[in-house]
Amino acid sequence: MLQTINDILSFLLELVALFLYSLWAYRVPHSLFKKYLLVILAIVMFALVWGLFFSPKAKYPISGSLGWLLKFCVLFIPFIPFANELPVLVITMAVITFLNLWVQSLK
């Protein structure tokens, strides 16, 4: 039961990270065409990195402490720009991400 809830939480964390990377790309000051191109590029890059290295069926899985640390960074970095406005949210998401990855490591 705990693993199922954690898998759902993992998926939600991935979606939120994808959304925040896309939001960052959208907020970069460029022309409208370049803005949407950058958003698409951010989505593709996140999906590519996640699919190749971090997904359950990754072609080149990174395991161990390095894999755990990199996965934490990929999921947590998009929250950092909110540190000044919403520090409690950023700390909460760091703890949730940490606990989520810790429970995954128990499998």
Please provide a written account of the structure.
The chain contains 4 helices and no strands. The protein is mainly α and 107 residues long. It has one domain (2-105).
List the helices and strands and how they pair.
Layout: H1 2-27, H2 32-54, H3 64-76, H4 87-105
- Percent of residues in helices comes to over 70%
Any idea what the radius of gyration is? 15 Å
Total separate domains: 1
Ends apart, CA distance between termini: 12 Å
Low-pLDDT sequence parts: none
What's the number of helices? 4
Mind describing the biggest β-sheet? none
Give the DSSP E fraction (strand runs of 2 or more residues).
under 5%
SSE string: HHHH
Let me know the average pLDDT. 91
According to DSSP, the number of beta strands is 0
Structural class: mainly alpha
Task: Using the alpha-carbon principal axes, give the shape.
Answer: globular
